[in-house]
Structure prediction request, 350 residues.
Amino acid sequence: MPKGSSAPRRATLAMVADTAGVSLPTASKVLNGRGDVAAATRARVEQAARDLGYTSPSSRRSVPTTRVVDLMFDDLVSPYSLEVLRGVTEAGAEADIDVVVNRLPPGDTGPSPVSTPDEWAARLKAAGRKGIIIVTSELTEEQVDAFDRVGLPLVVIDPLNLPRVDVTSVGATNFSGGLSATEHLLSLGHRRIAYAGGPVRAACAQARLHGYRAALEKAGVPADPDLALHGAFSYPAGLEMGSRLLDSPEPPTAVFAASDTTALGVIEAARRRGVRVPDDLSVVGFDDTILATLSTPALTVVRQPLPDMGRVALRTLLRLAAGETLDSHHVELATHLVVRDSTAPPRGET
Prediction:
């Protein structure tokens, strides 16, 4: 700095290029978001820019006037996702927030295959995002730490895991839901009740399983480990689990499925074997999406308030972005049983 100067010299693109040991065009490509640069080179340039406090001219000229949050799903086409999306966007409209919807590829750390957690977080922050909501995805501690480092608030809905206890999450009373579904089947007279569950690693699926087991134990019904299966929250997984259960030497008279789509797969497995629902097999789903009322027969379900979960997630994210302290990092909204046509007493009982 020249003698007598009162302000530090602003970092330039040339200084970034020199510090990173790359050409000026390469530095420009990286800092303007071009993808045709090797990951290691990109990392050096971005680190140099951070170290020097470099701000691109476009960033200095444009100050975002619209508040934007990112909403990321691992599955954008499921009825579950559409219900959550409805809640988030409705709450966003009420708060004058724009919601950008993206898909998080399985096993990836962000929208670009070459992204590191820090690059992903920095890109979202540079784009002016106020925060990020991630739905039913598996997060790593590195990703959560990266969001923290750039000051990007994070809320997760029905996470498959929670890498840190202080990660803010919104879900439903899954244990209570599993308990009420199984108690309903027990009250009808069923004793051989199966659980067609979600992924073993999914916290919500484990909570539903524990509710199922607690109801059996409370009723004095031994839990048969062969009747508790696990798979994806999907129709094919439900079809596969339903087939295994119905082809077993002692098939169940009722199935509690961990999602609506899983339940529909179980019902299809029954149809292919000439097993009638609910005459020969009772089925309970979980979620209460549009599929539950469109299925034949209409599906008895545990309803979780998916749009409300989306609304609460958006409002919680805005509180975090405003620097507010939350009373709890974990919010669970109440579930309740909705009885329709897919459950009945077992054959021979009234």
The chain has three domains: 13-61, 67-172+307-332, 174-305. The longest helix spans residues 79-94.
